[in-house]
Amino acid sequence: MNRLENKVIIITGAAQGMGKIHAEKMLAQGAKVVITDINEEKGREVQQELGDNSLFIKHDVSSESDWKNVVDMTLEKFGQIDALVNNAGITYNYALEDLTLDDYMKIVNINQVSVFLGTKAVTPSMKAQNSGSIINISSMNGLIGGAAGYTDTKFAVRGFTKACARELSPHNIRVNSVHPGVVHTPMLEQEGVKEAVEQFKKTIPLRRVAQPEEVSDMVIFLASDESQYSTGSEFVIDGGVSAL
C-alpha cells in the first residue's frame, strides 16, 4: 500500500535539488504533489516529468500574495492540502564582514519568513479538515553553529516549528522540523567543494554524507499517517555530527 495515497502535498523549492527528489518520491507513494519554485522554466519541466498528479506554480516564497495564490490553486486543482514541505532555502558562503544587509535579509526572507507565510497560509484549510502535517526543512546548522545568516535562520525555523506545534495541535495539525547534514548532490562534485567534503566526511561519525533519498524518506514519514503522534520535534539526518 502506498504510504501517501491520495494525500495532497505542497513542496516549495521543488524545481531542482532535494525538493524535486521529495516530489518524485512522494508521487511514487501515491501523493498528489504541488511543486513551487521561482524558476518557472525548470518547474514546468519537472511537472511534465511527474505527470497528471502534479501541479507547478511559480512562487516567490517570501511573497504573501504568492502564498495565497498557491493555496487557492492547490484547493481548486486537488480540493485539499494534507501536507506542506517548507523546503526552499539559500545561503551565501561569505565571511561575516563581507555579508551585506541586503544579503542577510534575502536569507532571512527565503529561509525564515517563507516558513511563517507558508504555515499561516495553509492553516485555515488544515483546520477545516482537522488534519495536516507541516514539515519545515531546517538543517544540522539549526542545532549547531555554521555560517552567519544561514545558521540563525535555521535555528529560527526550529523555534517557529515548536511554537506552531503547540498552537495547532488542538486541530490535529502536526508541525516538525527536519535537520539534514551534508547531502550528496551535484554541488558536492564541484571543483574546490569535493576536497572539502572529503575532509569533512572524516569528522562524521558514520563516515559518509547522506544520500538525497534518505532525507526524502524522513519527509515521507512525517507526511504520512505513520507519524501521527509526532509534533514539535526535530528529526535529525546528519550521520551523528550534532551528537559530537
Automatic annotation (TrEMBL):
GO terms for molecular function: oxidoreductase activity. It comes from the Bacteria. Keywords: Oxidoreductase. SUPFAM superfamilies: NAD(P)-binding Rossmann-fold domains (SSF51735). Gene3D superfamilies: NAD(P)-binding Rossmann-like Domain. InterPro entries: NAD(P)-bd_dom_sf, SDR_fam. One of its GO terms (biological process) is bile acid metabolic process. Belongs to the short-chain dehydrogenases/reductases (SDR) family. PANTHER family: DEHYDROGENASES, SHORT CHAIN, ESTRADIOL 17-BETA-DEHYDROGENASE 8-RELATED. This is 3-alpha-(Or 20-beta)-hydroxysteroid dehydrogenase. The gene is fabG3.
